[in-house]
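Onboarding guide, step 5: your first structure request.
Type a short instruction followed by the sequence, for example:

Predict the 3D structure of this protein.
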Amino acid sequence: MMERGIEQWRPGELPLEWIQTCVAEGWVYVVPRAKELIASVTIVWDDPLMWGEQPEPAGYIHMLIVDREFAGHGIGRSLLAWAEQFIADSGRQVARLDCVRTNRPLRGYYERAGYTLVGYKKLPEMELAYEGALYEKPLTL
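The system replies with C-alpha cells like these:
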C-alpha cells in the first residue's frame, strides 16, 4: 500500500499480538484458492479502541485484504457483503468499520458500499493513522 501511495498502515503499526489473538479466537475469515490465500477479513464483536462503549451491539469489520493479483474482480466487495451477512446472522443490526481519515480511495470504496461516515477518532499514538474515519451501515435481518 505504501508503494502505491495509500495511507492506511505501516509495517509494524498493527501489533502482532493483536493479529495473533484475532487468528486464535477465530475472528479471521479467509478466501482460499488452491493452496494460497487470496483475501481475508476480520470480524470482532466490539472495538473499544476506535468506537469506545456502544449501546447497540454491532459487528466490527477490520483488515479487509485482497491480494493485489486478484484485485478488480469484486472479491473485496463480495467478502464485505459476506461479512455484513455474517454480522446480521449473529442478530446484530449494524456493521461498523474504520480507516485512516486521509485514505480517500478506501473511504470512497466504503461509501460506495453503503457505509455512512459517523465521525472521526484521533489516534495520537499512530504516526500514519493519526485520525480514523468511522463508518457504519444498518443491516437488514
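Each response can be followed by summary notes, for example: The chain has a mean pLDDT of 85.
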